[in-house]
Specification:
The protein is α+β, with helices and mostly antiparallel strands. Helices cover about 40% and strands about 20% of the residues. The protein has a domain of about 180 residues: Nucleotidyltransferase, domain 5 (2-Layer Sandwich). It is built from 18 helices and 24 strands. A hairpin with a 3-residue loop joins β1 and β2.
Length: about 550
């Protein structure tokens, strides 16, 4: 009966689509109007290093979107024998920040510069001082200003500047708009007006190096919209871009495009003040919705917003679980070498469990850095993944795996200490990411690292793309005065089950011992960069 109901909903177009462009996967999810996942599709991709800059090709953006949607469409047809011809509402999200600059002919002026590029230190420092507001290297305005300082010739021709999510949305709707959460990673937001800070816009325009151009920065930026507002409608051109098969009709209501931080907050029900979430993947970031402004400006704390425009303290580390995954792949190769038929999930389970059952609290004296790229929090300009041990370190599989979890959480711990010193309060931190698919292990070790309760949703949705689908449903279904947090509490998560783990004192102490080695050994990482120049073109 349930299948028949879903089948009818697909036929009638009473469904929602959420798509998120992550750093390694483009994922599309189709849901019912009551937020149940019907099917998903994905496309694996990777950034490449071109002329010293991390980028994704524009053609790959569209290949990723079309492949993820096509895989979803085929899955729906196999499961329900129905072709998707109409979708009521949809939304698109992506990794935040970066730099996509277009001219008056809508041509991309330089290859897409992603958040991963730590090349804007000069601009970041100058703008932070000017605004008295932290402007991280990842932010779009830092990339713009660095291009100005570098006297790049393309700057004079910029007509429009946007993010990856904003770009996709623009192409599908013809609307140059952006969700306020994603906008807050481009340029500072004024909570009172729900738009870019007029003071800071004027300060930027008044810079001598900026005045040579015939544009004002406000005219380059997409218009911010808050959750619940209509971002536009799927055009005929947009329908063909999304679904080249020609089956999908135009007209879907589209939510404002959001960043992965915003969709993470939605998918973990963490948009209320004093709520928080942490997302662990290629990078790691925590989001704490603030009750009050921070007393000082910190270069390790981004002030961004929820999809409704409330200020959020964001701690973002460029590196997290990539090296952990690389070592698991190594063990997978070994298992195949000796003829083992162990599945990937079983291997992850077995290895992860040793971090709890066969490891010392401090990871046996092991240290190092899972840095595939530069790390702003620790002022490391490039990445060199390192495992460092002393002759008397206890080099076991359990300690090795615990070390990898600890180093994945190391940089973010430094930023979170600042929030603790600022007495930023949270009622709960909800964790999400692939490492939490294996029960307990990552959750327990993260609790130790942050010395706080960590919650994982028992029946968690599908992360970012699911969160984007929820935002699109909020766009068409919200009652006149219904806030997003009310909508999430009363409509989306009303029957959600959670599991919360508290930190063990022994594990907390062990992590602190690890952190002493982590901080003290940063010169080792810097020396590796100096003495071992990178020749790698891809992560």
């Amino acid at each position: 009966m349930a299948d028949e109901k879903i089948k009818q909903a697909i036929k009638n177009g009473e469904v929602a689509l959420g798509v998120e462009f992550g750093s390694t996967t483009v994922k599309a999810i189709l849901t019912t109007e009551d937020f149940k996942t019907i099917a998903s599709g994905s496309y694996e991709w990777d950034n490449s290093l071109q002329d010293g800059l991390w980028t994704y090709a524009i053609d790959d953006i569209w290949l990723g979107l079309q492949t993820a949607y096509s895989n979803l469409r085929k899955k729906v047809f196999v499961d329900y024998n129905v072709e998707i011809k109409k979708i009521k509402t949809m939304g698109f999200s992506a990794m935040m920040h970066g730099y996509l600059a277009f001219d008056k002919n809508n041509e991309l002026l330089v290859p897409f510069r992603t958040w991963r590029n730590a090349i804007t230190e000069e601009a970041s420092l100058e703008l932070t001082k000017l605004f008295e507001f932290n402007i991280p290297q990842r932010w779009s305005v830092a990339h713009l200003y660095q291009a100005i300082l570098n006297q790049e010739t393309h700057v004079k021709n910029i007509e429009f500047l946007t993010t990856l999510a904003g770009y996709v949305h623009w192409q599908l709707t013809d609307q140059k708009v952006i969700g306020i959460g994603d906008a807050s990673g481009m340029f500072p937001i004024d909570e009172k007006t729900g738009s870019y800070s007029q003071r800071m816009l004027s300060q930027f325009d008044s810079l001598k190096s900026v005045q040579q151009y015939n544009w004002h920065i406000q005219d380059l930026l997409p218009k911010p919209l808050t959750a619940g507002e209509v971002g536009g409608y799927l055009t005929e051109k947009g329908a063909r871009l999304l679904d080249p098969s020609g089956n999908l009709s135009a007209g879907a209501t589209i939510a404002p495009p959001e960043g992965d931080a915003g969709t993470g907050m939605v998918s973990t029900n963490s948009v209320k003040k004093r709520s928080g979430n942490i997302s662990v993947g290629t990078s790691i970031f925590s989001m704490i919705v603030l009750e009050k402004s921070l007393q000082h400006v910190y270069t390790n704390i981004d002030i961004v917003t929820t999809p409704t425009g409330s200020p959020v303290a964001m701690v973002h580390a460029n590196n997290s679980a990539s090296d952990l995954s690389a070592w698991v792949k190594l063990f997978s190769q070994f298992s195949k070498m000796i003829g083992s038929n162990i599945s990937t999930s079983e291997l992850y389970q077995a290895l992860f469990n040793t971090a709890l059952t066969e490891a010392e609290p401090d990871a046996g004296g092991l240290s190092g850095y899972g840095y595939y790229s530069g790390e702003n929090i620790t002022a490391v300009p490039e990445g060199r993944p390192l495992l460092v041990r002393q002759p008397d370190s206890e080099f076991t599989i359990g300690n090795l795996m615990r070390f990898h979890f600890f180093t994945a959480f190391g940089a973010i711990k430094i930023g979170m200490r600042i929030l603790s010193d600022e007495k930023v309060l949270t009622d709960n931190i909800v964790a999400q990411g692939g490492v939490f698919k294996t029960p307990i292990v990552a959750q327990k070790l993260l609790a130790a690292a942050l010395n706080t309760d960590i919650t994982v949703m028992k029946t968690a949705g599908e992360g970012g793309p699911w969160g984007m689908a929820v935002l699109s449903l909020y766009t068409i279904n919200k009652k006149t005065t219904q806030t997003l947090d009310d909508f999430l509490d009363n409509n989306v998560f009303i029957n959600e089950k959670y599991e919360t783990l508290s930190p063990e004192p022994e594990d907390v102490q062990g992590f602190e011992q690890f952190m002493e080695r982590y901080v003290a050994g940063l010169d080792i990482e810097l020396t590796a960069i100096k003495t071992l120049p990178s020749k790698k073109e891809k992560e």
